[in-house]
Design brief:
PLIN3 protein; lipid droplet; Perilipin; flat
């Protein structure tokens, strides 16, 4: 999970969502109270679940470690094949706009000639 979270694309996308969430909460007082209540509920459920799940996680720890190792190798291969994962969202959007603009210009030139 931490390896996925550290991917530039995922990290920048999370930052964008977090910023939008904070901005929305700040701009809309009614939504802020709903969001605050939801956050408290999630925190309570997480705390209650953590104590129940811990014994199961301890038992499954060797299996989780093996799965984690395979997942890590798979993510490394995925990162090699998809360099897009190492770019921030802003750059991907900018590159996409540039590519579309270029293609539209090419199409205009083809039609006009």
């Amino acid at each position: 999970v931490s390896q996925v979270a550290n991917l530039t694309l995922v990290n920048s996308a999370c930052d964008m969502v977090s910023t939008a969430y904070a901005s929305t909460k700040e701009s809309h007082p009614y939504l802020r109270s709903v969001c605050d209540a939801a956050e408290k509920g999630v925190k309570s459920v997480t705390e209650a679940t953590a104590s129940c799940v811990q014994p199961v996680l301890t038992t499954l720890e060797p299996h989780v470690a093996t799965a984690s190792e395979y997942a890590s190798k798979g993510l490394d291969k995925l990162g090699e094949k998809l360099p897009l994962l190492q770019k921030p969202v802003e750059q991907i959007i900018s590159d996409t706009k540039e590519l579309v603009s270029s293609r539209v210009a090419d199409a205009k030139d083809a039609v006009s000639s």
